[in-house]
């Protein structure tokens, strides 16, 4: 199963709106007979690739899959049926399929007399497919909020300078997160002051091997994105989200524009409406990159599913904080998190945490 989880990771960033899935087929003697990864939506499922490689050796063998095999005929045929037809005698999967349309594979397999077991290394497999699983369960994209800060939580110095707070290793890691995401989202302040490019680069990969995320600028008053901005360089698609009542004539023609309602009582856009709009565009995972105002609005909307903080061992004592007002006025209202990872990246610390659900 651990191998299947590693195979699933190959599809991260390229299978959306479908899940990243891995599969290993063992023959009757327990030797690996086939391996498969789901690589793109509409393409063969992981089980199909693995069965193809295993051929006759699948008969009497065991299939290990990171997600419950599907029972539906969608863009491809049902994998549960393919496993029955191949004659495997045992199927072990990690996570049950939350997609109502495809679920039911375990029951199909059991009805065919196959020995079925779910839940093996479920936690690890969940983590490897967290974006897709969360988006299906919530009916909106998974949101990962990433920030880089000094140890005292500042994202820039008092004079606005911010390059480079974290080390090259941390910055490379952010590019990996961008490549995994379907969309990278920033607010108008970041667009105005940093003129970010928001593309993914990877020293180990060719540009053509990276699926570039959709670049989204939340520019409610349609005033931050200017002609010549780096997000408009055409190297990846860009979407500008503006308020319904904004005068978008300045930016129409620069990039596709989506008009959204404002947050009730606020000046920014409605975060649920923004996420709905992105989900409708097949976005299943969002990397929220800043700045503090937009991050505050996401936290206020309880729309952050994971926090990834890159902490540089430096102190500033002044300058903007990574998170602005999130509508939290008292300690009892704090958004409590559970740390799921603490890793050193060169001189920096990368902390990963998820909200503790009430
Ligand atoms: C995948 N790859 O390896 C597995 C999936 O759009 P379809 O017809 O390809 O079906 C997608 C659904 O099938 C998906 O939402 C999930 O519930 C199930 N299993 N999907 O894309 C795979 N095993
Ligand atoms: Zn399938």
UniProtKB/TrEMBL annotation:
Cofactor(s) annotated in UniProt: Zn(2+)
InterPro entries reported for this sequence: APOBEC/CMP_deaminase_Zn-bd (IPR016192), CMP_dCMP_dom (IPR002125), Cytidine_deaminase-like (IPR016193), DHFR-like_dom_sf (IPR024072), Eubact_RibD (IPR004794), RibD_C (IPR011549), RibDG_C (IPR002734), Riboflavin_Biosynth_HTPR (IPR050765)
Any single Pfam family the record assigns to this protein: RibD_C
Record key words, sorted: Hydrolase, Metal-binding, Multifunctional enzyme, NADP, Oxidoreductase, Riboflavin biosynthesis, Zinc
Catalytic activity: 5-amino-6-(5-phospho-D-ribitylamino)uracil + NADP(+) = 5-amino-6-(5-phospho-D-ribosylamino)uracil + NADPH + H(+); 2,5-diamino-6-hydroxy-4-(5-phosphoribosylamino)-pyrimidine + H2O + H(+) = 5-amino-6-(5-phospho-D-ribosylamino)uracil + NH4(+)
Annotated cofactor note: Binds 1 zinc ion.
The protein's role, per its UniProt record: Converts 2,5-diamino-6-(ribosylamino)-4(3h)-pyrimidinone 5'-phosphate into 5-amino-6-(ribosylamino)-2,4(1h,3h)-pyrimidinedione 5'-phosphate.
Family of the protein in this entry: In the N-terminal section; belongs to the cytidine and deoxycytidylate deaminase family. In the C-terminal section; belongs to the HTP reductase family.
Listed name of the protein: Riboflavin biosynthesis protein RibD
Protein species of origin: Streptomyces lycii
Gene responsible for this protein: ribD
